[in-house]
Each structure stands twice: as structure tokens, then as C-alpha cells.
Amino acid sequence: MATTKLFLRPNPLPSTIFSSSSIHVLFAKSKFTTTFSLFSAVSATTTAITNHSLPYGPSLLKGKTPEFPKQLQDEANPLFDESQFTRIFDIAAVRVPAKDCFALESRLRGHLLNWPRVRNIARVPGDDVDTQFITLLQDNTKNDTDEETLDLLNSVLYRDKLVKSFNVRGFVKFRNLAKISRPKKRKKKEKKGEEEKGKGRKKEFCVVEVVEKESEEMKGLLGEEFRGGEKWKGATRLLLLDEELVDKDVEEFPEAIKVVFEEDKSKNRIPTLELVRCRLTLYYDHWQMDEILEALLPEGMIVPSSFETVGHIAHLNLRDEHLPCKNRIAKVVLDKNKPKIQTVVNKIDAIHNDYRTMQLEVLAGNHSLVTVVVENGLRFNVDLATVYWNSKLATERQRLLNGFNHKDVVCDVFAGVGPIAISAAKIVKRVYANDLNPYAVDYLERNSVLNKLERKIEVYNMDGRRFIDAMFASDKAQSITQVVMNLPNDAAEFLDVFRGIYRDRPKDTKFTFPAIHVYGFSKARDPEFDFHERIRIALSEVAVNVEMRRVRHVAPGKWMLCASFVLPESVAFAKSSLNMK
């Protein structure tokens, strides 16, 4: 049996390319090349996995697994061997003329392979012959086909010849006209690495092989790829059929396919459609992240299917059962999300310090934790080793910003690197931002300058209580309309500073009582009631009209909530207040 190799190019992923006598595997991600013989590499015995209960489509539990020799395993990757995820599927295909492939694809859409990330049309590179050899091929076919049929079959080759007769500036034969009608094209400087990137985008991750009958004519004289007994009929393509049709005869095919074959026989003296048998090989780069992890992790273990993205960093929060496999999980996450993800980290401990920084362990990729996050059209420089950032709160931050207007003056008590303060500066009149972490304050100033909003933001590095007391003791208190306290773990404990905040001011003066937005956690059965009680205790006020909202489910039985209320006048003018330390 002889094989013809075909390539699918659906998406810009790394590939595996087959040559005539060897398989040449290119791993773009591992940066090395391995070459081995086709017949010596893949053992004659393959492990077939069949399960009729599996759903339609490609699966690692289906197909055949080739057995590679031990010396071909990836020595540079001790975590796992990527070749173990190679699967071979037997499928049927229809060889059609290239000019008719798209029309027939639309006509037979429901009976084609229709697998995700695999095109239904496969190219036949052996049929795309250079125009200089057309005359030889025409001599080979002139006895069986007339000139009109030959022109139709060679339309693709005629188009290729036409392409070479002119360039981007005009027709080659009319050089003067081309120079007059088209301006000279500016030469662009080619950057280093662009060619390599371009090549990487064209690489394939699956291969189709056509299994054909070996020709006795000219056997061994012109090589294995020579199809001695066949007559060239023009460029052709393959339409990959439904996987359920691989073992069926033409009589058992759906009526739509039968009609296509009957029409071809009636219109053409020599049939142009041919039913062939193919082998579809899918490699590691074809499978999705959850499919790889499901096959890689021990049976019964929950597959981690989501992670938080902070710039180029993937932030995992693995369970204890995942820790023995953490490096394997990180590699799969990195491989399946490149080039967007370049670093994979895992949180190894809960947040216990006052700066809200997390203890992170780099599992894969580069070790830089400094990244750039884009949110609400703004750019934020973030260093996860020294500051806090939570991308999951982007929707909540946007909801909060939607309640601000151009007349507001915002006081952000726990600003961090400025996701709320800087975003609010685009909307409101003025922003006063504060944080206890000096590294966060440094990045807050950088981000305000980076987004050209430094004139509308005043930055402070103080304790939350002292910052609130200083703001409302100054003349700025009358202009403050919104107070944001986004410190869910401790924010409710800071509300006591608002009791008696206006005690030294005359009551007949006109005051603007700010709207306070405070965040907190609750593990109670009724989290809204529990959080409301904590607010009332902190303010020492029973009648507090609070608008409560659940933000997100942080952990089993633990909710993050947002409470919004206007500072009561009775609290602001209370006679007693806690002494400042």
C-alpha cells in the first residue's frame, strides 16, 4: 500500500508534517526537531480504542494510538510525553476537482466530518503541479480527454500561470504603464523574528493520509510517491466524510452523496469523483486543555477547568489533591494558551497580611510577575509579588462606576493600584485615592500618569481610618459625594470612624452626606442580614437603610457582598467617637 500525505490548515497552531519516507515532527513549543522512519517509528501493532457509547467527534478515548520507540520520547520534557496524545482515525473521503470542492462542501455539509478544529476540505499537494510540467501531463491525458474537458480540469493551473504574468504594480509586459499608474512601494524594515513567527502560524497540527492501491508500473524506479498507472486530471481536493461512513459501501451512503456520484457519471465521460480511504492523525496540539488534563490526571480527580488571567499571567488556585500534578497542569495550561499566557502561578497560601499580597509559586513559563492589565480601556501596571489585583471583580467595578456622574467627588479608601480610582477619574470631577501599601501607591501614581489622569487624582499613603478622618476634617469634606471601601476582609470594621465625623461643625451649615459603598465577606446562612448587622454595630446606629447586593460566590458557603448607603445624619453628628491612635 502507498500513502499520499495531505495537510489541513485550520488554525495557527504547531504542526506535524509528513514526508515521503519519514515523518518529520516539528514541535514549535519545545524548539527541537525529531526525525524517524515511517515504518520503523510506528509499530505495526497499534492500540485501538473503541467505544460505541462515546459521543460523535474526536476523542482521546477513540481511534488508534501509535506505539513509538523509547528513543523518540521527549527527553527535554520529563513531565509527560506529548506523543501519547497522538490518535489515528480511519475515515472515508471523496476526491473532487479543486474548482468544485466548495460547491460540493455546501451541498454535502450535513454528511461531512464536521469535527471541531478540523476542516472538511483537505489539500492534495501532489496534484498541484508547476505550470512548466503541464505540457507533459497534457500529453499523458490527450488520448482520453478532449481539449474542452482538459481546459476545465486545468483551470486552477491556468490561474497560477496568470498570476505569474503580473505583480502588485501592474502587468509585467507593460513596465512603463505600471510605473506611471502605480507609485513606488515603500520598503518596510523587516523585524527579526517576523519570518519565524509567520512560519509558525502556517504549521499544521493534524495530517490526512490517503490509502491508495500500490501501482506495479514503474515501481521502485521513480520512488514511492510516483503514481505510475494514474493519469493526471488536474488539481483535486478531498471532502472528508462522516466518521460513520468509513466501513460502508456506496450503496449504504446517504441519498445526497449517491445523487452527487450519479450526476458526475451522467455529465462526464470519465468520472471526476472518487471514493478513497484516509487516515486522519491528530497530535497533542489539536486537543483542548480540558481534554488533555482529563486524560493526564488520575481517574476520579476533578479537572481544573478555569483560572484567573492577569495580563500574561495565569493564576491558578489548585486544590490539595492537584498539588502532586501541579507542574503537569501548569504545562498544559501554558501550552494551550500561548502566546497570551506566558507565566503560570499558583496561590500557596491565603491572604493574611495588611498589604493584601498573595504568596505565589511560579509553576511554568517565565518568572516575571510584572504585567500590564487592560480594563475599561485603561492600562494598569501590576506586580503580583508586591500588590493585589483581582480580575474577577472587573464586572463589579464597572457596575459601581456606572453609578457615578461628572459632579461626583470620589474618595477611594483602599485604592490599590487604582482600578476604581483611575477609572472613576475619567467620569467624576475629582478622586482622592489612598492605600497603606507603599508599593501599591507607587504603581497607583505610575498608572495615573500612564493613563494621563494624574491631574484629577490625589494619592495618599495612609492608614484607612486616618485617611477618612483627615479628608472629612478638611475643607474637602463638603465636596465628597462617594466613598468606596473595597477591603472585603476588614472594611466593615473601619465604619466606626464615620461616627461623629461632623461633630465639631455647626449643624446649621449645609452638608453633603456621602454615599458609602463597603464590601465584605459572610459565611452566615443569611449573608445579607449578617453583613447588615455588622454595619449597624460599627456605626452604632439601628436605623440604617442599606442596599445590599451579592457580588460573587468566593468559596463554598462564603459570599462577597456590597452594601451601599448614605451616611445617616445622626451618625455624622454623634457626640461620641473612637479616639484615633
Please tell me about this protein's structure.
- It is a single chain.
- A hairpin with a 2-residue loop joins strand 14 and strand 15.
- This protein has 16 helices and 26 strands.
- The termini are far apart.
- The strands form 7 sheets. It has a 7-stranded mixed sheet with strand order 22-21-20-23-24-26-25. A 6-stranded antiparallel sheet has the order 1-11-13-7-12-8, with helices on one face.
- The protein is α+β, with helices and mostly antiparallel strands and 581 residues long.
For the terminal residues, how far apart are their CA atoms?
Answer: 88 Å
The number of helical runs is: 16
Global shape: elongated
**Low-confidence stretches at least 5 residues in length (pLDDT < 50)?**
1-51, 72-76, 140-153, 177-182, 191-202, 214-223, 225-229, 577-581
Let me know the number of strands.
26
Query: What percent strand?
Result: 15-25%
Helix content: 10-25%
Across the major sheet, the strand order is 22-21-20-23-24-26-25
Mean pLDDT, all residues: 78
Computed over alpha carbons, the radius of gyration is 34 Å
**Global structural class:** alpha+beta
Assembly type of the chains comes to: single chain
Major sheet details? 7 strands, mixed
